[in-house]
Write a structure and sequence with these properties.
Radius of gyration: 17 Å
Helix content: 25-40%
Largest sheet: 7 strands, mixed
Structural class: alpha/beta
Shape: globular
Number of helices: 11
Strand order of the largest sheet: 6-5-4-7-8-10-9
Distance between the termini: 21 Å
Amino acid sequence: METGEFGKTLLMDGCTQSSQNDEHIYHETLVHPSMLMHENPKKVFIGGGGEFATAREVLRHKSVERCVMIDLDKDACDICRKELPEWNDGAYEDPRLHVEYVDAKKWLENTEEKFDVIIMDICDPIEAGPGYLLYTKEFYTFLRSRLNKGGVIVTQSGPGAHFNVKKECFTVIHSTLRSVFGSVAPYTVDIPSFGCDWGFNMVLDTCTQDATKQGTMDSVLADLMDIPMSKIDALIEKRINGKLKFLDGISWRGLFGTAKEIRTQCKEETRVMTKDEPVFMYTA
């Protein structure tokens, strides 16, 4: 649909998924921190990503040799290719991109291929769909086997505003990831068309087996914020084709300067999502 404030907007089941005027905020925030935290990302896996905008941002990295995008909903992807060409910017024509329309979990289980960066751009964990299995401890434990040494994982994590991070799914996803990996950076960004800040969780140091020996959440965030702004700007200039609209050295610090209230709720979260004990995000 066309909207006055946000331009062309994609809705699914009545909920905003992506809008023309601010989709770049979501996709740059989802993709580039994880890509920049890997020394030389050559192989990237995208779970979901139906608008092809996540692939668009991944393929801007000069080092990428292969990007695999696995999305369950071919109809939705086809509609996005037809109706939202601005989102993909021709990404699906890039020879480095391989796309299949199957279940991402099953695809990963049926391959021995490993990746440098894994980006989960999937639906929220709701009771009506199969997507919640991609947020479980069992899946995250398995995901380690599909990462190359020094690999990075990032997942969209639902609403990231202080009043709903625990009520919905952000803190549970963070807690579940920490139960497997340890060094997990929760971060948020304001996406106006979503009506609130949106949350993400990035996993670093995935090659370490003992999660208890990883850094604390605050230390991980502090390390990310301690990276000089000039270094982030230099990495973006060196490794990414074209100019980013949202992310630079200054906004990097804003992303990882996660509010104290949200950090506290993440620390206090004890729930861990499993296949047998899922935690669903309910929407009005």
